[in-house]
Model the fold of this input.
Amino acid sequence: MQRFDGREYIYPPDLLRRFVATPLTFLYRIGAFKVIVKTNDETLLPAFEASFESPGTNTFEWKLIRDSDSHGLLEPSMGITSGPLTFVGMGPACLIGVDRQRRELFAFIGRDIDRQTYKALLIPLFFELTSEACAANAASPSEGHNQACANE
Amino acid sequence: MIAGARCVLATNSPEASELAAAWEQKTPQRHAASFEMEVFVDSGMDDTTDQGPFFRGQNHLVFAFLPPRGFVAYDLLRRRVHAVLSTAAARDCCFWNNLLLPITIGVLGTTVGVIPLHSACLDYDGNGLLLAGVSGAGKSTLSAAMAEHGFSFVSDDWTYISKHGSLLMAHGLSSPVKLLPDTVKFFPRLRDLAPRTTLNGELAYELDPSCAEGFTVKRTSYPRRILFLERTSQPGCEFVPCRPDDVRTFFECNGERLPDELIEAKTFRTGIIETLSGCPAWILRSGDNPHKTAEAIGDFVAEAHNATV
Done:
């Protein structure tokens, strides 16, 4: 019998760019909460002083991905907030998702977003979304896993 | 019910609610897994941009821009879909049937018991025949030809597989068949249509299977056989048997990678693929035109069917 090798048919396996490696990891204390930032681009690291404390269990995680396949500038934002989730889309150049229960923030940042725009617009937005998430978790501990990260 | 999954829709739009009535099932399957879909229609939404669709995901969250009409966010852990649509999109049944719903089942399906397979599906006397192959192998063209040669049409590109008791059930979403401009020589009726830019940016004719003359459309079928399409330059059709391992490898490699958060969905998909790998399968190498190939498949399937009976 003639051999057929199904592996010849490999289709793009990561269409959504879920598995982009984020090898750069830093821990920050930003105001009242700790944030672990994971990214694939050092220019996306916030200009805060890194923390050398242990991360602890209630740390918020930011996964910031420089998306080299997405180009264009920021567009007017569209937002969805429902239950523990908040999504913000500013066109393909910037997509942000926050899961308050899981204390996670994800962002895809297009290649044309320069450092200045990132620093002036996006970092404050991440900070605001994280503060809101922590405040919501503090107000409704059952929504968070155990306790709000702001209380750590 | 959408491809075997139950959708609970909440919306502020009477138009969207009216469109949804088309997929309402009077006797819903009680055991079907369900997901919630919240659709907010924003009358102030700008729908003048001309970008193509755009998708990104991280862990259990997936985003889709379906310009110029919508921003959709999927939560695969909690099985929820949140969408903001323009008024035009909410009213447009093509947007729902050809874009929003197929994409939603494609993204979320694995978490609600529906596995999207990159295959066409045709039905012959209640027996489903899956046509698999890489993009460009000719699945859509051959599906259209087979629909003109006595097979009932279920789907031409993506087929959604769910479990129905101990059996697998293949679902189609009645999306248009996409036929590339050069196929007009095989399907002269396409001359009456204008080609359009499709989701993946290709220019293609879109043939509505439910209106196409000579087509019989079925929403579901039970997959019994699988053909893997390969084009060759040699005339004639050759059916080469495949081993279950190869069927398994093909579908595992074709499936989208899922994150660790979705372990249940991964396990479910593996189970479905395992069951599928038990179906008799062949590589179909054809250098013939789609109509001759469709006839050859018809003869082959009839022979296999008679042998079984």
Remarks:
- Chain A touches chain B through 39 residues (CB under 8 Å).
- Chain A has a mean pLDDT of 82.
- The longest strand of chain A covers residues 60-67.
- The first helix of chain A runs from residue 115 to 139.
